[in-house]
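Posting for a labmate who doesn't have an account.
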Amino acid sequence: MEKKEYSLQIGDKTMTAEFNDWANQASGSVLLRYGNSAVLATVVMGKESDKDYFPLSVEYEEKFYAAGAILGSRFMRREGRPSDEAVLSGRIVDRTIRPLFPKGLKREVQVIISVLALEDYDPDVLAVNAASLAISTSDIPFNGPVSAVRIGQMENGNEFFVNPTYKERDEMGSPKATLDLLACGKDGLINMIEVGAQEVSETTLNAGLKKASEEIEKMQAWQKQIVAERGVEKTAFIPPFEDDARLAPAYDKLIGTKLAAKAGRIDKHDINEMKSEWMIHAKGEFEDILPGRLDVYFEHRMDNYVHDLAIKEGKRVDGRAFDEVRPLFAQAGGISPVIHGSGLFYRGETHVLAALTLGGPGDAQLLDTIEYQDTKKTFMLHYNFPPFSVGETGRVGGMNRRMIGHGALAEKSVRVVLPGKDKFPYTIRIVSECLASNGSTSMATVCASTLALMDAGVPISRPVAGIAMGMMSKQVPASSFELPGNAKENGVVKGNNAYIVLTDIQGPEDHHGDMDFKVAGTSEGVTGVQMDVKVEGVPLEVLAKAFEQAKKARLQILDVITKAIPAPRADISARAPKILTLKVAVDQIGLVIGPGGKTINGIRERTKADDITIEEDGTVFITGKNGAAEAAHKEIHDLTREYEVGERFEGPVVRLMDFGAFVQIGPGKDGLVHVSEMAPFRVDRVTDVVQIGDIVPVVLKEIDDKGRYNLSIKAADPEYASRKGVKPGEGGRDEHGGRERHERHGRRDDRRNERRI
């Protein structure tokens, strides 16, 4: 076997890239290690595609052996469909490397990341760096390398952690993590961001990105050294023409005149119509040019138009100011009482409905992946994007990577404000239905989900809102160029490039713009961030400007949300199950469950409770409707309660003896009422006072040294026997009012021979 290793100290561990001949048929490959985590990245470039987009596929493969465990279902002990975590990790790699391939490249490229070992460090950071090295050292055209780093921060501290461990990233740990920032970039630019945060400030995020950029540049220098030594000559690539002399006059005549007539006010429908007209006309006039090249030419010219409109003329295609949010609408509830909570949110032509369902702890999702084993997930946010939302027909049902990614972003943005299990032990599921889409349904999902949570009566700490920011950038002569006056507050000129930040991007700005920068948070800080770009990267100064404008927009949206519903409703829906909680001693858990689950199943059947969940510390969650939870709570409480002398009960007579009666005072608990405790006078026969099944009042008079319960009817109700017509029996009393000595001796003999249950 041939191999060579390259190492770099990053954070408190060494990153090692091993180039070997394992996958020598691939265009490029590398084995990357960090701590005891390791990934293998391979890349292959295939044939030319006839598709109108770059056919890049990134596959992130989690191998169960990487966790040192036999996972999967009991009946399928092998890897199946990717977990959501694997999909999200694959998207991180895709979003980082995609903008660095040459525009116009149509050859198929497949990157496969195989997680070989997993311990303290998340392989998603390794995956980006490994993919970059594999592609950069291959013959595939690529404007890399590009590097990734994770930055963490914990509560009560300003220190940033470079590539924190899973434990250091734990939101519920002690101390808990307050920031989980993953950034990718090159040459001082950032081109991909993922953030989950506990309401951190924009200042903290800017500082975290600066720290990330410093670490990225260390890895960039390392990767460039490796590429210089191991890289091979790139395959020749001739980009499709961008301004062919033959096409320009035809485009200007057909499309240019239409754009001029609209004076810069166009929407996605206008662009789609113009593109259809262009393709029909151009195919007929230029039969020797492939349709794919005609498509590329239209997109290139439209990109230039939208960019020039913003940077040179200071205009947006829809006429809004650069920091202006489209019209907003919010509604909490009002759909149907069957739904436990709902929220409807409009931002311009983007409309999202969020529907919330409450369940018991037993409804939690059980995760069993290489990262999370036997973990219960009690908050789920699922995102649906049907084809009608964009006015198209298409496949309905199922999930794709985009849906999983958008749902995960909204989920982590909202999760921060949810109450703890001790305060609100429900399992919560929100489903986002995108009804109409014209820019950032993921951030509209955050807003609609907040409305649904408050409508459902979930006591969240604060409302959360989200907004999507965009950017137009263009190379300009630095010495003479100035942004238009109305764009100076929203833009940055750095070197030979001008940048303008756009608030609340929609159709054309999303499709033809350079950045999709989603920021979610509360009035107190940011909870979630996700950024994708179509250029090589964005300067930190521009990101700071984007955070500033996003905060302004977020506060505006939060004002609309709180006007629709100022606070969570006082009570949960009457249709939602009720959850009651109690705590039993750990050594009583077996008592509640019973042999083979007999006891707990019996309680469920008798009370009709939906679910009874017992945790290892003895906490019992009881879920039910229409009084079922209360009934089950009482049974478990009575079964596990500790009885005290002097307590009063009412219970059935379950067994008769010559010397007394046994009365049940709780599940599995009964005590003896001796004949002398049935009335304040002598009773000749037990059956004169009680019969099997009678409900009698009793007081717990004594718990003897063997744990047996001695009860008294006369102490609970001295008139009980008299009301039943019982007369005092024959027999003398001693001077203390008790029975004669020989009778008391006989009573002791009775108890000595008694068989208790």
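Reply:
Got it, the structure tokens are right above this. Residues 202-230 form the longest helix (29 residues).
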